[in-house]
Amino acid sequence: MKKLSSVFTEDMDHCYFTGAAPVERHHIFGGANRKLSEKYGFVVPLRPDLHPNGVHFKRTRETEKIDEFLKVQSQKYYEKHYGSREDFRREFGKYAY
């Protein structure tokens, strides 16, 4: 398994929100931006039922809020440490807020 790191937590073995185990590693920006998530550390461990790509996932208002929260936090982190909002948009092709 590839070693993934996160700018949000050092504990990749417990859910970022609940502290539960086991977890699945969630790339906050998936698809074409999956590698960018890895590059910038925009990866978090999530309980399988909270993981948007997980087999046990069910889209609810709670999981949509989690997904939106993680995207916004990632964009804020990027803007604080790497570049401007425009830089973020150029790299990720969209923005969270």
Offer a quick outline of the entry.
By secondary structure, the protein is mainly α.
Overview of this protein structure:
- By secondary structure, the chain is mainly alpha-helical.
- It has one domain (24-92).
- Helices cover 37% and strands 8% of the residues.
- The chain contains 3 helices and 2 strands; from the N terminus they run E-H-E-H-H.
- It has helices at residues 34-40, 61-81, 85-92; strands at residues 24-27, 43-46.
- Strands 1-2 form a two-stranded antiparallel sheet.
- It is globular and about 35 Å long.
- The termini are far apart.
- 23% of the residues are buried.
Task: Sketch the topology as an H/E string, one letter per element.
Answer: EHEHH
Structural class: mainly alpha
* Whole-angstrom Rg: 13 Å
User: Spans of 5+ residues with little confidence (pLDDT < 50)?
Assistant: none
**Main beta-sheet strand count, sense and barrel state:** 2 strands, antiparallel
Distance linking N and C termini: 32 Å
Q: Could you state the oligomeric state of the chains shown?
A: single chain
Beta-strand percent range: 5-15%
Q: Secondary-structure map with pairings?
A:
Elements: E1 24-27, H1 34-40, E2 43-46, H2 61-81, H3 85-92
Antiparallel strand pairs: 1-2
